[in-house]
Amino acid sequence: MKVLHIESGRHLYGGAKQVLYIMEGLAQRGVENLLACPPGAHIAQPARASAQVFELPMKGDLDFGLVGRLRRLIAAEQPDLVHIHSRRGADLWGGLAARRAGVPCVLSRRVDNPEPRWLVKLKYRLYDHVITISQGIRQVLLAEGLAPGKVSCVRSAVDPKPYLIDYDPAGFKAALGLAPDALLVGTVAQLIPRKGHRHLLAALPAVLAKHPRLQVLIFGRGPLEAELRQAIGDQGLSGQVRLLGFRDDLPAVLGCLDLLVHPADMEGLGVSLLQASAARVPIIATRAGGMPEAVRDGQNGLLIAPGDVAGLAAAMNRLLDDAALRQTMGQAGRQLVLDEFSIDAMCEGNLAVYRRLLNA
Q: Which residue has the higher pLDDT, 188 or 360?
């Protein structure tokens, strides 16, 4: 079996890492992988271990020429199936290219934001099957009129091995110039509006009143960086909140956090939640999208309503007040990841969809 994967992201964020996991697992199962990605995309180099990589210009939703470029690639390489993993034009133009070439096409849907029913009716005709990374996203598509037999859920996964280590919180705090007794709360997400960083900043005064030695570490980069930096200064939080950018060594430091907070308004599943759980960090997230599948309320974290600033502050204070509860939830989170979010299960789930389509 030969599969052409299309990933238009330039950075190796959660979605692109899932593509790497899938291709590595498929290669181990005898599948020949091809990857189409933008020139200079961070996925290109690591992908070469499990796929033949083709770097093509991918300029977004208005890049009509992408249809032709992908169609020529399909004609030259003759894949049995095309798997589209991202949006930003790759979904529409990749689907058209596969349809014109007469090759079965699968779309991975990683976000839970709704689309107009008329668009769903037109756009999703391009795909033979849709794979969602959570049941939450699947329910969104079903509510918009997609036939149940056309949509399967194969959850995202995380490689737990880098997080199954002994962490050194004291050394991490010392490296940041923090006191040994400081409590560390982190967020790991792109700096974009739907990740809800503004809710965290709004909740902090009520939390700092009880925990004045709290430090908040914001991992990630994105277009909101300048705006967030300004808001941190305007709200007098510069001494308690740090923007740490993108960290290549995240697995080595994530387990030093006392708590991960992810107050996103929308989220397909949340790979950073799985990573935190693997590192035995308890989580506060919202009841949006697929997050309740990664964070079981009262088991490995707490869930609040999206945008509930008071609820977020109360949940943070509850966990920061109780070290024993944090430890219990952290251990439960690691077991949840090991039991339900393995890379093998994700690869087998995708492969089962491929086989079903090709056999049909």
A: 188
Same domain, 293 and 346: no
Q: Comparing 13-22, 189-198, 289-298, 313-322, which segment has the lowest mean pLDDT?
A: 13-22
Residue 190 shares a structural domain with residue 283: yes
pLDDT tens, residue by residue, 205-257: 999 999 999 999 999 999 999 999 999 999 999 999 999 998 889 999 999 99
- Count of other CB atoms within 10 angstroms of residue 324: 7
3-state SS assignment for residue 47: helix
- Residue 74 sits in a domain whose CATH number is 3.40.50.2000
Contact predicate 108/83, CB 8 Å: yes
Dihedral sign of CA atoms 136, 247, 12, 53 in order: negative
User: What is the average per-residue pLDDT within 114-122?
Assistant: 84
* Three-state secondary structure call for residue 271: helix
Which residues have C-beta within 8 Å of that of residue 209, sequence separation ≥ 6?
none
| Distance in angstroms (rounded) separating the CA atoms of residues 7 and 128 | 18
What tokens were used for 2?
A: 């030969």
Look up the pTM and report it: 0.84
Q: What share of the chain is helix, strand, coil (3-state, %, to 5)?
A: 45, 15, 35
Instruction: Give the tokens for residue 206.
Output: 């009520």
Instruction: Give the DSSP H/E element, type plus range, for residue 21.
Output: helix 14-28
At residue 313, what are phi and psi to the nearest 5 degrees?
-60, -40
Separation between Cα atoms, residue 305 and residue 110, nearest integer Å? 21
pLDDT value of position 360: 84
Q: Which residue has the higher pLDDT, 248 or 103?
A: 103
Q: What is the DSSP string of 291-340?
A: HHHHS-BTTTEEEE-TT-HHHHHHHHHHHHT-HHHHHHHHHHHHHHHHHH
Query: Any idea how long the chain is?
Result: 360
* Residues 205 and 109 grouped into a single domain: no
10, 40 Cβ separation under 8 angstroms:
yes
Domain span at residue 135? 2-157+342-359
For 306, the 3-state DSSP assignment is coil
Look at residue 122 in the predicted model and tell me its pLDDT.
Answer: 86
Distance between CA atoms of residues 15 and 31, nearest Å:
20
Same domain, 99 and 36: yes
